[in-house]
Amino acid sequence: MAHALAPPRVVNIADLRRLARRRLPRVVFDYVDGGADGEVTLRENCRIFDEVAFRPRNAVAGAAVNLGTTVLGTPLALPVVLAPVGSSRLIHPRGEAVAAHAAGAAGTAYALSTLSGCTLEEVKAASSGPVWYQLYLVGGRDVARAAIDRARAAGFSALVVTIDTPVAGLRERDLRNGTAALTSRRLWSMLPFLPQFLARPRWLAGFLSDGGLMCFPNVVLPGVGPMAYADVGVALEQSAVAWADLRWIRDAWHGPVVIKGVLSADDARRAVDEGAAAVVVSNHGGRQLDGVLPTLRALPDVVAAVGGRAEVLLDGGIRRGGDVVKALCLGARAVLVGRAYAYGLGAGGGEGVARAIEILRNDVARTLKLLGCSAVAELDRSYVQVPTDW
Fold first, then answer.
1. Domains of the chain
2. From the candidates 3, 101, 254, 284, which is the catalytic residue?
């Protein structure tokens, strides 16, 4: 591991965030770091973990702990999956393939965003572990179906359908940083925002050597080719997912479908009724509707509504292994992390992603030992105390 990513310089995810902020242009860092509107949900996703207290069982013998779990029938070495992060290639050259490789090396799964800069085939080839494909319907049904066919042929093992993005949330940092102008390809509009790139020459060199502004190679538009990189808000608004779409998506995929963006018991039950093998309790990392429930607070209701008919996963706010363990105690089979590894990608590429995973793995193992629990499979609500109004 590079010295810059080793202790004492990097001991937690916040340290990776600090390094990423120093190494990335402001517009790229804020794209990863920011949320919608006043970023209330973004903050609450993290803060809510502080309301849950551990209840350890002390004087329990045992030196080793088992971090393994099974998600969608696939064994994972730890209960942490790398969530889809769009445009990761802007964070680091070949960012999606680099992150997928690190996930596979760690024995866990990686989920590829539709809005990625690397092809489905390249990402699958980069990972020795399971890879999932996260689906937006940008470009329409035929374009999405073609991507589903490619994902199945390439060996992707699950399809993640995101249901909370009928339109992109208002991400004020992106507006202030000139994202729309920078993707307009109009020089005079771009000029006021270019100095932030010149201030990060190392990132700029990597960006240019990787081909400059990426396109979306998994969104192949008829008669046009890969969709150009641009503000995708309009494209998302024109291609929102409805429950009725789940039927043709299932028929096209022929494999496990994961519904991501569930925050209520009603949506959880509907997802299972529509054939979901798993649901992800998610508010899109606080990047869509601001002011919704933090995901950990929504988790118990979703777990109860699903009633064991499907697996329940959670994302949002995970920054420490203790956060992972609390989610598992409240019924999640595993968690997805996005920003935690994206900070690592920005801080140090593949080694940074590997360091983020290592930090979380070590945190989870240490937390289990301090709880007196020998395996993540044994975690349950008896290991935590939650507020009475939960």
1. 3-53+68-367 (3.20.20.70)
2. 284
